[in-house]
Specification:
Layout (H helix, E strand, L loop, with lengths): L1 H19 L5 H18 L28 H15 L1 H7 L6 E5 L6 H11 L3 E6 L10 H19 L4 E7 L1 H5 L8 H17 L7 E8 L15 E6 L5 H12 L10 H7 L5 H17 L7 H13 L9 H21 L4 E5 L9 E4 L10 H22 L7 H16 L15 H25 L1 H14 L1 E3 H9 L1
Parallel strand pairs: 1-4, 1-5, 2-3, 3-4
Antiparallel strand pairs: 6-7, 6-8
The structure holds adenosine-5'-diphosphate.
Length: 490
Amino acid sequence: MKHKEIIAGAAAGALLFLVLQGVDILPMVFIIGLIGMLFYFNFAKQPNNGANFASANRNICTISFDDIGGQEVAKNELCEALEFMKDNEQLKLLGIRPLKGILLNGPPGTGKTLLAKAAAQFTNSVFLSVSGSEFVEMYVGVGAQRVRRLFEQAKKTAKYLKKSSAVIFIDEIEVLGGARGQNNGHQEHDQTLNELLVQMDGISAVEEIKILIIGATNRVDMLDSALLRPGRFDRLVKVDLPDKKGRMHILRLHVRNKPLASDVSIDALAKDTFGFSGAQLESVANEAAILAMRENSDKIDSNHFRSAIEKVMMGEKLDRLPSKEEKHRITVHESGHALIGELRIPGSVASVNVASRSNALGYVRQTQEDDMYLYTYDYMKSRISVALAGVLAEELIFGNRSTGGSGDFKHASDMAKQIIYNGMSELGIISAEDIPKDQLHSAIMKILKKVENDTRELLMNHKIDLMRIAELLQDKETISGEELRIGLNN
Ligand code: ADP
């Protein structure tokens, strides 16, 4: 800062001297202004982290590994790698090269940022976080300059806060670290990536401040191979969507400060949220609390959670109301899905809804007892049957179909493709890439036609049940799986 003030003072003095000498300084002022603007917009802009020491305390993390649910494998791998960082003397003694980079790979919202913060807390390091996109610039050299500054900033902040190490977290690292020579304007991109490689190569065990880079991505395949070489990001930690046990752990963490009614079962919630990320589970807990508040309830009950799950899955409820005829059709359509869902996979329907939300006019939510990672031929056919049952129910009751089934058809034909690609169709074991398009098409059609006919017959045999569910839904808009099963057994 001091340097800048001295330079500004000297420049102002020089200009004043020239004015007194009778020199026309206007063109000079114009050029200086132009250079100043360029500097401000490009070089002065830097990743907004640790930029000023007044706010340096935000570079200290309070999140620990105990605040992260599930992800046991990722946590163990990360801790093992971090133990290295803690014992610097031993490192030097044995001549071990320090760990420079850890790459966290997984879908959004699974806790990668949390893991990086916990890593900083675990190693008593300062934490700086940037996103790969903050380095994308048009002008050659700007991104590289920002990388240099980031490393300098990390060291300065650590020194200022009297820490001996810093964790730099780079989210969406594929934007900055994508393969070289492929991007538009690739000269700038390549220079930025080269600078990151140079900075990482410069990290050594004898440095006063140790730096660890933690990158997060969902696209390891896009990264330049130089980044994955030993001595750079040489630890790859997979951060997957949580399994049922993980979901229970995450839910427990996010309801620990919330009053729950006695009918809430974390086990049942975890079962109902297969495929949810940690961020979505956090959102479910928060939305359930908001719903309870709206109802002036001092406890959050299972209905609040059920609505919250549906909101996170299907979006906000819409004010837009379909006409009476449309509503009737939607009700019959969803009743078709629900009836066949319950007949094909008993006990699987969690709820049936005909309240319009941003992602659907109505929907049936199905769950399974345990997380499933392998599907049999019969199971896949059952799912196709459930997907086709909506339009087939419309056909049975109204004598025609509507456009409401396009999403279902896509889903059904995707599943038929899975049957074919996994060698479970009449084509036998095939290579997905080599199969001719027309052959694939006719194999899909054959599967769909057979399931369609079976489902139509099943619906006809249960027409009374179908109408009973539709009646129930027409009155209530939403029914739970339990209510559906009671209705069917009466
Ligand atoms: P990512 O970096 O993988 O996109 P984040 O770490 O930013 O995900 O997670 C976003 C939010 O989701 C967190 O602030 C937290 O509330 C919640 N969350 C995600 N994963 C977990 C987890 N494993 N345990 C607890 N909360 C989680």
